[in-house]
Amino acid sequence: MPILAGTYDVFFKQMSFYIEIKLLFIVLNSLVLVSSSKIKSEQQAMEQASQLLRELQATQHLLESTVKRDERLRIARDLHDSMGHKLTALKLQLELASHLAPDLMLDKVNTAKKLSGTLLDDVRASVNEFRDSNGIDLNKAVKALVPNIASVRFELKLDLNQQLLSNRQAETLFRCIQESITNVLRHANANHCLIELDDNGCNAFLRVQDNGDTKNSSNNPGNGLAGMAERVKEVDGEIMCGFNQSGFEVKLSLPLDHIH
């Protein structure tokens, strides 16, 4: 009996030891999982914060360009309204004077008339130069918006003549690109995304194509598409979104205002 009791005692001590080891393993494994989950959550939070910072910087670039554009247009309009009006009036007065002046004064009056016409042309040229040089730098804003991350490579092809865009059109394109990038990062499970901007002189075109999973319908980024469609509709544009053989594609076109 003592031998049997000793055997049971050893057996239960070993079992207790194994149970303690097992419990310790479970605890350590749980700590590793919690730590891993925490690290992953922190990484996701850092990525989200970084993307938010890029969006704020890109929006700042767009806002700065818009403010400069509006100010230059205001100056150009003021210049045209004041000097242009006065020079036109002067030209009309000289035209009348040329019929009333003595023969000896005709040459000088005609010279002054030509000079006023030249000055008026100069004013108009200055106005056009103001307008041609004040386009919003949409390219700069888009480049600031695109994230530099290892998981997704963003390829930019920016061939759009920005001078043809109004402020509202530029903002519409910018917001659609912003939403598309967000959808790629959140839903597409892609490692490559192409962003193309160009025009044909009458319409501006945007195309965003990723190589995400086309088999999983849950990857469809439907949440932001309604907002994009509303923005595009407000500027009389058209938008199409959906899956193709390569992944998910966003295509839109905007009629240019030809404000220049």
TrEMBL record:
Occurrences of domain Signal transduction histidine kinase subgroup 3 dimerisation and phosphoacceptor (ranges)? 71-133
Spell out the Pfam families in the cross-references.
Answer: HisKA_3
| Highest taxon, organism lineage | Bacteria
Which InterPro entries does the UniProt record give? HATPase_C_sf (IPR036890), Sensor_HK_TwoCompSys (IPR050482), Sig_transdc_His_kin_sub3_dim/P (IPR011712)
Question: Which stretches are annotated as coiled coil?
Answer: 39-66
Q: Name one GO cellular component term.
A: membrane
GO molecular function terms attached to this record: phosphorelay sensor kinase activity; protein dimerization activity
> Which keywords describe this protein according to UniProt?
Coiled coil, Kinase, Membrane, Transferase, Transmembrane, Transmembrane helix, Two-component regulatory system
Q: Which CDD domains match?
A: HATPase_UhpB-NarQ-NarX-like
Transmembrane parts of this sequence: 15-34
List the PANTHER family: NITRATE/NITRITE SENSOR PROTEIN NARX-RELATED, OXYGEN SENSOR HISTIDINE KINASE NREB
The name on file for this protein is: Signal transduction histidine kinase subgroup 3 dimerisation and phosphoacceptor domain-containing protein
Question: What organism, scientifically named, is this protein from?
Answer: Agaribacter marinus
